[in-house]
Structure formats: C-alpha cells, structure tokens
Amino acid sequence: MNFADSEIVASLLTKANHTIVTDIEAADYILINTCAIRDNAEQRIRKRLHELRALQQRHKQVRIGILGCMAERLQSQLMVEEENVSFVVGPDAYRRLPELLASVRTPGTKAAETELSTTETYADIEPVRLGSNGISAYISIMRGCQNYCAYCVVPYTRGRERSRDPETIVSEARNLFEQGYKEVTLLGQNVNSYRYASENGNVDFPELMHRVASISPLLRVRFATSHPKDLSDRLLEVMASHSNICKCIHLPVQSGSDRMLKLMNRHYDSAWYLDRIAAIRRYMPDCSITTDVIAGFCTETEEEHQMTLEMFRKVRYDYAYMFKFSMRPDTYAAKHLEDDIPEAEKTRRLEEIIALQGQIALENNRKEIGKTFEVLVEGESHRSKEQLFGRNSQNKVIVFDRHDAQPGQYIQVKVTDCTAATLKGEIVQP
Fold it and tell me: Can you tell me the distance from the alpha carbon of 113 to that of 97, in angstroms, rounded to the nearest whole number?
C-alpha cells in the first residue's frame, strides 16, 4: 500500500514539474514514505535519516520530507526530534505536496500537513509506475480502516474507511492492460469490506472483482488484504468462476486462541475462521492460503501459544508473515493493556511458529512436484541470468531455465523440485 501511495506522490509531483531522479546525489528533495505498524519500521526510518546527514552536509540545498503513517502519528514532533527533516505530510495530504515543497526552500523553514480526510481516495490520480516491470501493477481501491484491532495503529494514521468509485478502478485496470500489463493487485487495508454507493446502485467487493476480471481473461487479478469477518461465500463464488482471478487468499489469523482474538478485537473466533478456511477449500480446492500472526500479545499464555501452533497445523498455510508483538502508541492495547510477555519469551514463541511454518511450507511445496502450472514470467532469477522466475495462480514463485521464454509471457512449467520458499521447474513445450 505504501508503494502504491508513492506512485501517487510521484504522479502529483511530476505534474508540478518536478523530475524523479535515480541518483540520490542529484536530488533537491528526498521523500521517505513510512510505515508505523511496528516500532522496528520506525527505527529503520530514524536510522535512514541519520545516514542522510552526511549527504546534507555535501548538498546544503537538499530538503528531506517524511510521508505516510509515521508522519501522521508523530506530526510536527518528528521535525523537532529529527532536525534534518523539513516537512511531514500525512497520507491524506499528498495533493498539497507541490506547495509544501516550495514553502521549505527558504533555509530554516519547516512545514507540516497531517489532517486526515473522510473522502480522499486519489481516484483521479493516474499513478506513475515506479520501478515497474511493465507486467504487474498495484491499484488502490480504498483507504483507511475502522476495525480498530487492539494492537493496530492504522485507523489512527490512515483514517476511516472509504471506498473508491468502481468505474475509476475498472478504468485504471483496463488502461494498464491496454499498456501491456498482465496482472493487477487490488489493494486495501481490508479489501473485502469494499462498498461503494451511487445513483447507479451499490457495488461490493465481489462485484468489483467480477468487473475487473471481466476486462480480459489475459489479465490476472489479485487482491490484498482480507479480513476473516468479511470473507463471504459470494466472493469465493466469483473467484472460482473466473480463471484469471488468482487462487490465493491472504487471511490474517493473528492468534489461535479465542480469548486472544477477543482481546485483540478481531470480531471472529477460531471456529468462524476455520469455517472460512473450509469454505475456501470447498469452492477452490487448489487455493493457496497465507496469513499474519502475532506472537506474545498481552497476557498470552503458553497454552494459547500452543493453540496458535495448532491452528497452523490445521490450516497448513503456504506462507505466513510472523511477528513478535510490538506495542504501538495510541492503540487500545497501549491505553488499556500491559505488554507483559518478556522479550525472550516472545522470541521463543515466534521462533517456534517460524520453524513450524517452514516445515509446513516445505511439505506443501513437495506436493506440487510433478504438477504443471501456468506461470506469468516476471524476470530473471537473482541467482542466474540463465534462469527466469514467475508466479503461478497460487502466488508461488517458480524458477526455471529460460530457453526462449520472455518476461510478460504465460507459459506452462512442470515442477521438478522445491525448497520451503520456492518451486523449481522446467518449461513444458507446447
């Protein structure tokens, strides 16, 4: 989502006659788009700001700005704590960037714009595709969140949920396809709560997916991220009925314990979650399922940690984003709960989850050996120019000898080997 926001910023600034440079030494402005979900993300930004001081000594004209969630969370406080920051801009104020950049040209001048909006979706902005491979692109379909999970800062940094006009989304996807793109990913903090009401009727997420997938069977469609409470059978029906909607669902579980889920304010229990997993497999037996999980949330017991491990064994995720709990300021947890799990214990629990998931992923991938998949070729393998890589519908990376294949092509690849993270295969000649 931050990458998609950066593409919006690039569009706004190029229209204001700024030019994107690839050499940081040539920059007059350096804009850092930030995340505030975990403390580690913010600490990386502060380290980057420290590293940039040497560049500012060489180039006195350089102005540094902080964009996004960290800017929204800390606002003008950030410019006091980090003296080399000239401006901070929240995620709903990017339209003001051209005038803010002009205002900080005077030495010593600083500026902040962090007001959240209930309507801004940047629907009329055609993003500049930064570092694009010309094959895959992101489309932001909504902004904000109002689930208020106890651990999450997003509702406070990105504002309330609002959905973008579906006609602008379909138009952007169609334009990308006409430009040669082969895959789009629809983005939102919680995409399956997408709702747009107009005089022409209401459009929900299943209907939006149907409209985008109907542009062409040659345009792959993905989405991220889903909330378990909003994953409907209707969406699964639409996914199953379109061969070009990728068979992969990211469904964050966060914990296997019902008490933890209630304390996290997740709006579902383990039985509901497993029912949604069963529904996915009923409609799409070949669908890949991935997840997010938090180790060591407030008051989590060893028994509840074991419940999370058991959830992993039951679902058998293909991939997981796994984190230790990080207390974030302004959240419900920060105001009402105690971060009482020792750091060493959080680490142990996380390591157990990682080890189990690695084992499950390897076992899942071994079951793919001998199967043939349609793969969208994305580019050269990092390890060898003689090999290419691409992804199948299940979002699994497959590496193979290149032969005559080219990025952007759909090809058939037979899986011959694997690791826990990657499938290895060979092109099946037509």
Answer: 9
CA 257 to CA 236: how far, in whole Å? Answer: 26
Residue from 13, 5, 49, 11 nearest 187 by CA: 5
- Residue 362 makes CB contacts below 8 A (sequence gap 6+) with 418, 419, 420
Tell me if 5 sits within 8 A of 94, measured CB to CB. yes
Amino acid identity, residue 284?
M
Q: How far apart are CA 389 and CA 380, in angstroms?
A: 6
* DSSP E strands, 119-256: 136-140, 142-143, 162-163, 183-187, 195-198, 201-204, 220-224, 248-250
Q: What percentage of the chain reaches a pLDDT higher than 90?
A: 94
d(CA 380, CA 72): 38
CA distance 312 to 362: 14
Burial track 153-187 (b if 16+ CB lie within 10 A, e otherwise): bbbbbbbebbbbebebbbebbbebbeeebbbbbbb
Question: Max CA-CA distance within the chain?
Answer: 65
- Taking only the tens place, the pLDDT of each residue in 207-250 is 999 999 999 999 999 999 999 999 999 999 999 999 999 999 99
Residue 65: strand pairing partners: 31, 87
Q: Tell me the C-alpha distance between 312 and 342, whole Å.
A: 23
